[in-house]
Specification:
The complex is a heterodimer. Chain A is α/β, with parallel strands linked by helices. Helix content of chain A is 37%, strand content 25%. In chain A, helix 3 packs across helix 4 and helix 3 packs parallel to helix 5.
Chain lengths: 244, 391
């Protein structure tokens, strides 16, 4: 479970994240929806302790991220906005590197790695060097290495960004599988359809603030719109920066 | 496995697969300097040898004014060339190292017993032409002294009267120390090698990794940043030390291809020298790795880091250049300054001298303390928030 309480982050005069609070529960997919530049990535970066909040706190499985960032990182699987691989290493080697950094025992790491390669359909390229991977192959490898320590909580920053239709469908199914396994899945997106389809809970962010936090059903009821797309536009104030 | 060790193993393994890093660390960096050195030394030495043995060929103006002088000069290995029209232009345009001019009234002054004048045109700023000029002057001087002595004897006087003071030169330079003067640039080559050996790795592990967007996922792992940094710096050190080992080995081998014995020199480039150089350089290896990481971490991109490190590479040349241009007496405090300490220490070893245990200890201790400080600064910068952000 991830609890975010009153998070603030400013870059100079720009208040990128301005008092954001929400909770992402285990066994649920929580979507962080917002137009480009709304503060989604900055919020996630504070969750996985890359950035320190100016104010507020983040609790991952009730652990304070400011007090014990290493313990928090052990409980998180992160697909950041930046998902560069090591080009001179194969997918397997990229995954193994993170397994060792996470302190996963070698035989256990190998077993999980093979399972992930199977689930993510990476067998064809797993031993080729990452130089020349397609966008989809890169994302798969990045996800596999992020989940090698079997974290309870999974953070995905725009996971379907740049993927083709088939890969996007597989990615969505993968997230559902994670939910079925009881994980806490939090992902950001600016694609309304995706959020509406997948999420048990939607947190809408605009200009660094949470403007809505409810289930898709509740959002529809709240705004009185039967169409979720119209509901979002109404909540955010404009449709700018969102994709259907 | 310790996380720093994990990072270290991965960086070494990955970079062993990178052709550019490998070529720089194991071929270009360590071997260019010894190769250049062998070539330059061969040219310099063979030139000095031929200049010393070959007949001294210089243009003479007004040779007919002093046939006796010319005959005497010929006996000393001087070979007069035909006159040139303008001696000043000939020297300035490098047509001749020097021009000897014998004025028309030479014979008249000679017979009267007055000092007869000859003129030597040369350019003292042209160091490469010093040797023929000095030879010519020495021959003329010798002829003058001999003739003077004979004139005194003819008048029944002892030639010793004309030489109240005799200078007896006792040159204290040893063959090693003469070689050392030529080799004083060598310490800079070692520093340069360490620098080049680690450079691509340092850029790749910071600016490069950020540019490839792999730093952010790396930092999501439960490893403190200083732990990651230590692994990376250790990897840089391994590459730069390998470069240094190859370079020092190449220099010890290259010593055999330098015909230094022709100049009566003896190069102290043995295994003991190699070992001492490597030990002395160890603090610099760490210091340079930390410094390179720091600079690369500050840079916004791979290219920017390359530019900054290229400029930084010239800094270690300063002690070498300064000590070559302004030879100062070495003082004990100099061993406390990294780079300077190595420079004078290695030069001392080359000159056939040795370093005391205190000097070596000072050099190592101060070097490691300053390297540790640099490492602390680098770790601070590496821990900063904006470091990881790729976009």
């Amino acid at each position: 479970m991830i609890q975010v309480e009153n998070l603030h982050k400013a870059f100079g005069a720009i208040r990128a994240v301005d008092s954001v609070s929400f909770t992402a529960r285990d066994g649920e997919i929580t979507g962080l929806l917002g137009p480009n530049g709304a503060g989604k990535t900055t919020t996630l970066r504070m969750l996985y302790t890359l950035m320190r909040p100016d104010a507020g706190r983040v609790l991952v499985d009730c652990l304070d991220s400011a007090a014990d960032p290493l313990a928090v990182r052990r409980r998180l699987g992160v697909l950041p906005d930046a998902r560069g691989l090591y080009k001179n290493l194969s997918a397997r080697e990229n995954i193994d590197y993170f397994a060792r950094l996470q302190g996963v025992p070698a035989d256990e790491g190998a077993r999980r790695r093979e399972a992930l390669i199977e689930v993510l359909e990476m067998r064809d390229f797993a031993d080729r060097r990452a130089q020349g991977y397609s966008q989809g192959q890169r994302v798969k490898t990045a996800i596999a290495r992020a989940l090698i320590h079997e974290p309870r909580n999974v953070l995905l920053d725009e996971p379907t960004n740049g993927l083709d239709v088939m890969a996007t469908r597989r990615m969505r199914q993968f997230m559902r599988d994670l939910r079925a396994a009881g994980r806490c899945v939090l992902f950001s997106s600016h694609i309304m359809q995706e959020v509406a389809q997948l999420c048990d809970r939607i947190v809408v962010i605009a200009r660094g603030r949470v403007v809505a936090d409810a289930s898709p059903e509740a959002l529809r009821l709240e705004t009185g719109e039967s169409n979720l797309e119209e509901a979002f536009v109404k909540i955010i104030g404009s449709g700018e920066g969102l994709a259907a | 496995m310790n996380p720093s060790l994990v990072v270290f193993v991965k960086e070494v393994r990955e970079n062993l697969r990178d052709k550019r890093t490998l070529i720089n660390a194991l071929v270009t960096g360590p071997l260019i300097a010894p190769l250049m050195f062998v070539m330059v030394m061969n040219v310099v030495i063979s030139r000095q040898v031929t200049q010393a043995e070959a007949p001294l060929e210089l243009p003479v103006i007004g040779a007919s004014n002093a046939p006796n002088l010319l005959a005497a000069l010929r006996q000393q290995g001087f070979d007069p060339l035909p006159a040139v029209a303008d001696p000043i232009a000939a020297v300035r345009d490098r047509d001749a190292a020097a021009v000897l001019r014998i004025p028309a009234d030479f014979g008249k002054s000679w017979s009267k017993g007055d000092p007869a004048q000859v003129e030597v045109y040369y350019d003292s700023s042209r160091r490469d032409m010093q040797q023929p000029v000095n030879r010519l002057k020495a021959i003329l001087e010798r002829y003058s002294r001999l003739t003077g002595a004979m004139r005194l004897v003819a008048r029944g006087l002892s030639p010793a009267l004309a030489r109240p003071v005799v200078v007896d030169e006792r040159d204290q330079s040893t063959p090693q120390s003469r070689a050392g003067a030529l080799f004083s640039i060598l310490p800079y080559f070692f520093v340069l090698t360490v620098f080049i050996g680690g450079m691509y790795l340092a850029i790749d592990l910071t600016a490069g990794e950020r540019e490839r967007q792999s730093l952010e996922p790396l930092f999501a792992n439960p490893v403190p940043r200083w732990g990651i940094l230590l692994g990376k710096i250790a990897a840089i050190c391994v590459f730069s030390v390998s470069s240094l080992l190859i370079c020092v080995t190449a220099f010890t081998l290259a010593g055999r291809f330098i015909p230094a014995e022709k100049l009566g020199m003896d190069l102290g480039l043995g295994p003991a020298f190699a070992l001492e150089v490597i030990v002395l350089m160890l603090p610099l290896v760490l210091l340079i790795a930390a410094l390179q990481t720091l600079v690369a971490a500050f840079s916004k991109s791979y290219r920017e880091a390359q530019t900054y490190l290229g400029i930084l590479m010239l800094v270690p040349a300063l002690p070498s250049v300064l000590l070559t241009l302004l030879p100062v007496r070495t003082a004990p405090w100099m061993y406390t300054v990294p780079l300077l300490g190595q420079q004078i220490g290695i030069t001392e070893l080359l000159m056939g001298g040795s370093m005391t245990a205190v000097q070596v200890a000072t050099c190592l201790l101060c070097g490691f303390v300053i390297a540790a400080l640099m490492l602390a600064v680098t770790a601070r910068v590496y821990g900063s928030e904006r470091l990881a952000i790729s976009v």
